[in-house]
DNA sequence: CTGAAAGCGCTAACAC
DNA sequence: GTGTTAGCGCTTTCAG
């Protein structure tokens, strides 16, 4: 069935196309009466204005591109959801593009986006500087980086792009304070290979700094409070080795920099006879939905993706209005759950220290409530 | 910076716009020489044709809508990924819309899609018949349903929409056969409330039928091999009750109809001192990425989302070409992992029965390889 | 308050 | 082979 056009409506309502247009947009001068009649006809004909034709004049396509590495990753899916809903509130459509961190695919996708004359873009920058994103920038399209700080490219271009990401400090500080209060003195960070990622490098650096605020938590034997794991996907051998190292160090609590490592190691720890939250306390970055579903539920340092989505959209809107916009770091938040308990052989931890933000057994609402992480009061 | 238009290119190349158009589309007669020159200029100007203007003629927008309940759900995210990549191979853009199973939101989103004159749509039908989707149908837009069979609405409209979904039979049959071979005789299905979902109802029905093929597996005490769980999100109490019921029944193996229930129950079972794969064998529907990461890894009945995406796209393409397209049910596949082991107190299960499709500790490749589930030879 | 007409960027006849 | 021209469906002056 062919689409009804504005002419069809005009004809049927006995008016001209410009009158219909005015009725559609509440613009210009139009009498209440004709407006109602036109609206009536629009209903009858199930007329939907062609947004393509429309946007060719307005210079606004009402569409925003969202470039992420992989939609299958829970974290990015949450982010996409949040961004999309926030944009929808502003009558903007989100074009979700999964670039797989592959430059060629990025090129194709950005080409598509340019062809549609998107009004703006929200981009998770890939590890290496991206020529595709530069193209957006050169075209003068407002861009906001999200989640990762891009490696400063040699071209000054990216210099003026606002970044919205998470500051690991607040979350790590609370987590370490809580672990300390629970009597833990030997806390180990488990991180991925640091070369790959600024994010991981920063977490590591901040972890060390925050740990050093407690003199009794420094480890006299090992200078190095962190353990690096390669990217080999969770070999059992690797996790077994990990368990051995922890035992040798006398570690009573671990913080995982990458949620995936935490998931993989969990079973190994339990298989080794450790009860998580009793024999070993465990905290992971990223508040994945699954972490609150598992038993024991896993304490996390939340990146607050919902807020990140909302804030990045707000930043983009500002840019789109031609206003200035600055980079912003969101606080991470420590959420205590069952996986953290008092250190074995310690009398501490019966009560949490005042001021520690703790949500015992915090549960995440999954359906329908974007903000339902329970983080915000 | 303003976009370069086809006129800019024409002017600069010293030709007319139609010549540029021909160079762009390799259509009509054009000399090699001028074509190269035009291409040259296009490069220089970084010219990108305006797909909106373009599509106003061709009657094709090269865009397809994908309507899913929630992108945050791993299962749908996987599906979206698969669909999007498959469509991209055919130079079609995917407009991912998360409808939250809310009719009003569906209305808005479908309105947007109509406004863009999408060439087709792939839709996960919501439990109740959707007026929004009917609107697409009335407009004559090719639609394919995916994953769920829609409740037959009173309007004949939806009758002619092909459905691509998963047939639980093959997977359940293999799973039950494997469990039987492992010595399990008391197998229980754990399902959600059946009223909500045709899918769950069917799984339940097929489970009973497949179970009855083994005379020694029927349960003399309980007529009812299934346990229904409400939707209360994983209350500890509920899971504890579940454990008690299983013990009382003498169940040695469980099959979860909903992956979420499996995740929630896992910890409770382990907390009760059961070793999964030894004291209790466990199979879940849906091959979520996490299931292969956990220790023990979880045996699953895979819906083969990758294939489902590919097949639904193929079906849609057929429809878009005006050809007939039929509904299709994909086989589900049982993938054995560590969570299934021999029944306690049974001598069986040392070897798997011949012909049973088994992938011990099957691991899912997450990055970069759409087809990397390891299901396809 | 309403209508006629120009044009957004592109494609597709039709001429030359 | 290439240029001219008429639209696609809409918004937006500019007259009435």
From TrEMBL, chains A, B:
One Pfam family matching this protein: Peripla_BP_3
Gene3D superfamilies to which the protein is assigned, alphabetical: 3.40.50.2300, lambda repressor-like DNA-binding domains
Molecular function terms, GO-annotated: DNA binding
Keywords assigned: DNA-binding, Repressor, Transcription, Transcription regulation
Ranges for domain HTH lacI-type: 4-58
Region (Disordered): 339-377
The organism's place on the tree of life at top rank: Bacteria
InterPro entries: HTH_LacI, LacI/GalR-like_sensor, Lambda_DNA-bd_dom_sf, Peripla_BP_I
Entry protein name: LacI family DNA-binding transcriptional regulator
Organism of derivation: Bifidobacterium favimelis
């Amino acid at each position: 069935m062919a689409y009804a056009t504005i002419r069809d409506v005009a004809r049927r309502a006995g008016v001209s196309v410009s009158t219909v247009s005015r009725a559609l947009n509440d613009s210009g001068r139009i009498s209440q009466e004709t407006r109602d009649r036109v609206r009536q006809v629009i209903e009858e004909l199930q007329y939907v204005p062609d947004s393509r034709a429309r946007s060719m004049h307005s210079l606004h396509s009402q569409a925003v591109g969202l470039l992420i590495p992989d939609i299958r990753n829970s974290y990015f899916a949450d982010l996409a959801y949040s961004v999309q809903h926030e944009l929808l509130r502003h009558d903007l459509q989100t074009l979700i593009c999964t670039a797989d961190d592959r430059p060629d695919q990025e090129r194709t996708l950005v080409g598509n986006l340019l062809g549609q004359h998107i009004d703006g873009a929200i981009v998770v920058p890939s590890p290496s500087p991206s020529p595709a994103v530069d193209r957006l920038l050169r075209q003068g399209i407002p861009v906001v980086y999200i989640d990762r700080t891009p490696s400063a490219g040699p071209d000054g271009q990216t210099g003026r792009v606002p970044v919205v990401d998470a500051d690991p400090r607040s979350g790590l500080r609370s987590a370490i304070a809580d672990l300390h209060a629970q009597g833990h003195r030997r806390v180990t960070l488990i991180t991925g290979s640091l070369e790959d990622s600024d994010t991981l490098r920063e977490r590591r650096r901040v972890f060390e700094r925050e740990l050093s605020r407690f003199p009794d938590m420094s480890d006299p034997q090992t200078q190095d409070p962190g353990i690096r794991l390669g990217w080999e996907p969770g070999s059992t051998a690797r996790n077994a080795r990990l368990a051995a190292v922890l035992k040798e160090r006398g570690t009573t609590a671990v913080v995982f920099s990458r949620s995936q490592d935490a998931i993989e190691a969990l079973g190994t720890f339990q298989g080794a006879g450790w009860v998580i939250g009793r024999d070993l306390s465990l905290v992971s970055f990223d508040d994945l939905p699954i972490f609150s579903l598992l038993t024991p539920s896993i304490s996390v340092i939340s990146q607050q993706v919902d807020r990140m989505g909302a804030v990045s959209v707000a930043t983009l809107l500002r840019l789109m209005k031609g206003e200035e916009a600055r980079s912003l770091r969101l606080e991470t938040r420590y959420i205590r759950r069952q996986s953290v308990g008092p250190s074995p052989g310690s009398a501490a931890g019966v009560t949490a220290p005042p001021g520690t933000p703790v949500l015992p057994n915090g549960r995440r609402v999954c359906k329908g409530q974007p903000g339902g992480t329970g983080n915000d009061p």
